[in-house]
What we know:
By secondary structure, the chain is mostly beta strands. Helix content is about 0%, strand content about 45%.
Amino acid sequence: MTEHSLWESKNRNRQEQAFGITLGKITAVDVPSRTCSIVTFMGQGTLNDQVINSCQWLNADANPDGDESGCIPRRGSMGLVFFVGGETFIWGFMRPQSKGGSAAQGPENPKLNEGDKIISTKAGNRITIKRSGLIELFSKDTLQRLMFPLGGKIVDMCQYYNLKGDGGTIEWGADVDTGMCLYDAEFRQSLGRYFIVREQKGYISSDIICRTTIGPAFPGAAGTSTPTYTHTIGINGETVTTVSPPQPEGTPIGYKSTIGPDGSITVLSGTGQTVVFTISATGETKLSVNSIAEASVSATGDIAVKNKVGESTISATGDIAIKNKVAEATMASTGDIALKNKVGEATIASSGDIALKNKVAKLTMSSKGDIEISSGSFFTMTVSATGEVKIDAKGKATIAAMKGLDITVSAGPVKIEAGGPIDIKAKGTVKIDTGAGATDNVLTYPTTLSPFTGAPLMPYSTTVMVSK
């Protein structure tokens, strides 16, 4: 009978074991707790023939950060046993402790067996080589890979992983037959799923390989004012971004942009997609507003703007055209200008030619100075740059002068009347062809002689007579 119990430090057994070292043999292994049962031998005094049911095993590179490299001990293995402060350790088989004294391993207990080799970290990532040859890669359920030696090769046997938690879910799977795989993750703002972020990658559909959606829960949550944002990437490289107003599912898209694999860009804006902006891969640009107004710029620099009542164009060469439903104007790069409406038009050529006309009359001036005036099909008057004047009238033409001279030309007789003398001067003979074949018709001026003096009297009217 001793005066001190086994649990007191003054007990002889406790004093001998305080800092003792002996050999031990493992009789049982508790993998989850990283402890084993041992029997000591070849020790001195109370260190010999001890049965210890909870002995921690040590690894050679154990450290306070929790990293571990070693193996799971097997029954029958032997090692050095250390007695420190009432605790026992066997060299090379210890699960390390953290700085706070708690177990460094995470909440997941790996499914290990005796003889398995393991390399793990405090974060829970590990590589395990099992006695059967199976290799396991593990990272907190977000990645699990199993590889098995088969016919001299390592075969990947894992085709799926899944993680579910309060913050969302992550799933990954592969179809062995098609070779297609899909990564689907959903992150929630709260357990009520009022706001989520969902990301999908891989074989989503026949033409989409990536889709990200940010917004309210699906199909929508009452009282949520956050718009829904969707970003997709097609298998051909096409990228589509959409933003929908903060309303229930089915609300028209407020914004949509598409980037084609060739570099083309299309932007739709407005709940009714009222604004459409497109840039082709060649550089051609188009803008449409409410489907009633459009503007475009071609790859060569041509510009066109139009709405339902008019349009204007500017070509890359400098040609300009403006028109509406009743009128139009053009300006050529050469300097030619044209204006017209439904009743008339005007043109100015770069050469200097000018023309004004309507449906019944026309006035033209050439760059040489020639002038032509025409009215319908009955009257034409031309004045050449040399001063030659020509009047062609199929009807009746009257020329009135300010001093009372009237010249009337009609299909009938020619009549010239004046309030005073009429002088006709010519360097040559004045000829009038009556159309009867007469020649050398000469204008004569019959006069009246004074009965008093015999001198010619001033007539009040003069009639031009034609003598044959």
